[in-house]
Amino acid sequence: NVDGKRLAVAGNSVGGNMATVVALMAKDKGTPALRYQVLLWPVTDASFDNGSYNQYAEGHFLTRNMMKWFWDNYTTDAAQRNEIYASPLRATTEQLKGLPPALIQTASADVLRDEGEAYARKLDQAGVPVTAVRYNGMIHDYGLLNVVSQVPAVRSAILQASQELKEHLK
């Protein structure tokens, strides 16, 4: 059984995009009422031209060309890429008002860092309670890579996400 009064969305990378879009759709449709969003190194924009994309174009793990390939396989239509259900960062603050509180984690050495942090700032401007944390020295998908699973920052990030979910779903 699912308690429809205790729902949250969570996702990492493109899953973070999906979680964000589900929250936007739920708000727009008026149901279901979500209590929280956990967005781990999320994709929030179809643009490839910001500081972290330029700094980490050749990666640590995720590159600009990989992201271009992913987007091209999702849609090559520029108008679709600009829609808020594809690029939530392009939503207005008015469109973001009323979203559930959010935790947004980013990795310092990730092409997605700046768009995740920009989305956190935009949520804040819309009056959405948001906790944004950059994990220094981390790369994309740090929370899922076995090779770094015992690194204290990774353990801290996973603990933070689980504690926030637990707190908001009481």
Protein model, in words:
Helices cover 42% and strands 16% of the residues. The protein is α/β, with parallel strands linked by helices and 170 residues long. It has a single domain (8-168), classed as 3-Layer(aba) Sandwich (Rossmann fold), CATH 3.40.50. The chain has a four-stranded parallel beta sheet with strand order 1-2-3-4, sandwiched between helices. The radius of gyration is 15 Å and the shape is globular. The protein starts with 7 loop residues before the first strand and ends with a helix. Residues 2-142 form the Alpha/beta hydrolase fold-3 domain. This is Lipase. Keywords: Hydrolase. One of its GO terms (molecular function) is hydrolase activity.
Which properties best describe this structure?
GDXG_lipolytic_enzyme; hydrolase activity; 42% helix; AB_hydrolase_fold; single chain; Rossmann fold; alpha/beta; 16% strand; 4-stranded parallel sheet; 170 residues
